[in-house]
Each structure stands twice: as structure tokens, then as C-alpha cells.
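just leaving the lab so this will be short. what follows is a protein written twice so to speak, once as letters and once as C-alpha cells for the fold. can you read through it and tell me how you think this chain folds. anything you notice is useful, everything is just below:
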Amino acid sequence: MKIGFKRLDHIMLCFPEGKEEEARAFYGGVLALPELTDLGYPLPNGAIWYQMGNIQLHIRAENSHELSQRHPAFEVHDLEAAREVLESNGVTVKYESKIPDRNRFSFRDPFGNRIEFIEMIA
């Protein structure tokens, strides 16, 4: 069984705690990315989302003493099949906070990098 990748959905970057206004000034001001504010649901963990071409950029504060939450997120055709592939190869998945229009989980690669898989809910 193989994982059916569809596309890169988003990339998440982090900024130091307390620097939200500087982050907005850079991404919304300098880079002129449109902020996504009317999605019909609150964003998880104080995130700020921007549209960046056909993908999104998600940013949020991060404590520098924790394992980084920076990650790419890939949309897949069948999230449960992807989970089965990962777990059958000894990879532990972590279900993340709920977002109304998607199911998702994350995992760490052998080097500690966080990767998220999502499946959009129709």
C-alpha cells in the first residue's frame, strides 16, 4: 500500500512568543500576503493564516524550549490508509486539534522533523 499524495496544503512557520504584531507586519505588510480571517471557525493555537498562491502559510508563536512545530502539511487522498502505512512501519501518529473542514494528524520523521497529513472533509 502507498500513500496517495494530492498536493502541498500549507507550510507552518513560527515566531517568538510576544512577537505577533511584528509577524503580522512582516507577512501581511512587507510580503503583502492576504490574511485569512473569515473562515467560519477559530484558528487553532492562536495561529495566523495567510494565502500564498495556491497554498497557505500558517504562523504561530512558539516557545524556543519545545520541540519545533514548524512543518509542511500534505493533503492525501485517504488519511486512514496513510496512517496504516506509517504505523505498519513503526511511525507514531499524533491526532491534532480539530479543524472543521479537515481531518489531520502529524508525525515526526526519523530526524525529528514534524510532518502533517490532512484530508479535506467534503
Q: What stands out?
A: The chain has a mean pLDDT of 90.
